[in-house]
Amino acid sequence: MNAPALDVVGLSLTYGDGPGAVEALKGVGLRLAAGTFTALMGPSGSGKSTFLNCVAGLERAATGTIMIGGRALPQDETEATLFRRQRIGIVFQGLNLLPYLTAAQNVELPLRLAGRKVPRNTGRARLDQVGLADRADSLPAELSGGQQQRVAIARGLVTRPDVLFADEPTGALDSRTARNVLGILRGSADRLGQTIVMVTHDPVAAAYADQVVFLADGRIAGRMTNPTAEAVAAQMTHLDQLMPEGVSA
Ligand SMILES: Nc1ncnc2c1ncn2[C@@H]1O[C@H](COP(=O)(O)OP(=O)(O)O)[C@@H](O)[C@H]1O
Ligand SMILES: [Mg+2]
Q1: Which residues pair with 30 in a beta bridge?
Q2: Which terminus of the chain faces fewer neighbouring Cβ atoms within 10 Å, N or C?
């Protein structure tokens, strides 16, 4: 049997200490089979971004183990950075495209950072897969928001990572562009066997996934396979009501 693409056990993280401390994650465990597309949902402040930052090696949890593709995410920061470059793909808000590189150069950058050979036209070929071959030489500022997001996804996938983590990848897009981006993610799971974990607050976006994992107040609060937008929306309303007063934004 193949190792799970992601195997997280007992992940806890508290921000600050004393009376102002915030327990962002309270023993989160999650195992995902390779090739699956998972949506991570939960009320604002439930720990979604913290979880993603930890499993992507950008933030260190206080306790817990994180296995990616059968290997432990290193504790050491330098080693974790190397591990991330080799094995993890990231599409995060704030991780913007570099403005002085073309779309193709942005897509190729993770390969260069990982010290891999970059065959000619790699960036253009990857952009072709997200329908942007004709914009390969454009700078990010010359692209629309949706086009920039597609470049970011091509960049996240270029190393063929064990897991692609995406935090609200369609949050800033109109619904038609969002559907296009979600279709690209769905297609990479179906055609390439790409494992994807996507944080979203949108039930329609979540319905593109194979399953939804719900977080509430730093804990896993449920799981739904073969989600529909209606069922997800109903569950989210339920979770909002469960949140302590003042925690949900
Ligand atoms: N850097 C930080 N310092 C202190 N508290 C934080 C920090 N980041 C997040 N938090 C708190 O941790 C909790 C979880 O935040 P977050 O993971 O961003 O939630 P979500 O992404 O689900 O909205 C929230 O209460 C938030 O205010
Ligand atoms: Mg967040």
Answers
A1: 8
A2: N
